Amino acid sequence: xxxxxxxxxxxxxxxxxxxxxxxxxxxxxRERVVRRTSRExxxxxxxxxxxxxxxxxxxxxxxxxxxxxxxxxxxRMSGQLLLAAAGATRPSHTHVVLSLxxxxxxxxxxxxxxxxxxxxxPDRVAVELPSLAALGVDPIADDFPRTQLRxxxxxxxxxxxxxxxxxxxxxxxxxxxxxxxxxxxxxxxDRAANTIDAAATWRLHASIVAxxxxxxxxxxxxxxxxxxxxxxxxxxxxxxxxxxxxxAGERCSTCGRGWIRRTISGGRSTHFCPVCQH
DNA sequence: AAGCACACCTGCTAGC
DNA sequence: TGCTAGCAGGTGTGCT
Length: 278
Prior knowledge:
Helix content: 25-40%
Largest sheet: 4 strands, antiparallel
Structural class: alpha+beta
Shape: globular
CATH architecture of the largest domain: Alpha-Beta Barrel
Radius of gyration: 20 Å
Distance between the termini: 27 Å
Order of helices and strands: HEHEEEEEEEHHHHHHEE
Strand order of the largest sheet: 1-6-7-5
Number of domains: 2
Number of strands: 10
């Protein structure tokens, strides 16, 4: 569910409401969400520590602790982090509860349990969280020179969409924003990456940065099922600016001529305008 | 070695 | 009303 803009919105909430708080108590319900280590490792690693930062790499949330370790949360498809008053009624699928020293609680809620919560040692990240260590450039958090995108695009004949989704190359773009970015860049999702020229590459670079920035400013995308909400439970509004995702069969609002088409590739739905995207 | 199919779960919706 | 099939924002594994 959440992609870079949604995770960044949650990160900003954590920066504001969690940093500086001491974790006084930890409860773990379903053990599956702490599968990378164990229930005991999470409880021992978090209890009586102070959260000293709130960072994001791609779709990973990282909160350094005063112990020198760090908390990592990945929301995957259906995870949520919510802040609530102690004693508030917890939604079903609340798997981890952190009690904080100001009387509030942070909840990790995740119906599908693809998400995970772990405490790790940052100096051993390559061993403890290899996929985090292997992430590519973060187009928002890092400097992202357009020459770097040029190198990535020229390195493979893969289609543009799976390339944008490859977290080892560029970190944070998911299924919704890949479609929106390619539409904004007027490039077909199935176009072979190494066939686009410099001008198209610069367009793609500008579209990545502009689309993600605009989505962050809108607080991310919350679809009809309201699965994505921020730390305070509020939805985003970028879904109102989607031009292709979820708009199959509608007239293209960009060129006014094409009809948005939906195809399946790699088991993921893909949306594009066959008229204005080449 | 890169790239692909499939697995991992639950809940919701559309269609019968 | 109630069943079932299909679909969902992501990534890890295991195969070619």
